[in-house]
Amino acid sequence: IVVKFLTSARREYTVWYANSLMGTSWQQATSNAIEGTGSIYEWLDDGSATDPDPALLTNRFYRVKVGLAQ
What is the Cα–Cα distance from 49 to 52, expressed in whole angstroms? Predict the structure, then answer.
């Protein structure tokens, strides 16, 4: 699964995921912030940073949080 999003300079992004939207807390998938460049960023969910592997699921939800670069 590839999550694509447009970035902006002087911003940092983190990808979060949940396997359900019912009573589940979101888990951070990216251990380090992604620096914005003004271009589209592609983050691959290959299961190395998420549990369980997305290939084993029928549903997974993603969100991208943005903050000011530090």
Answer: 9
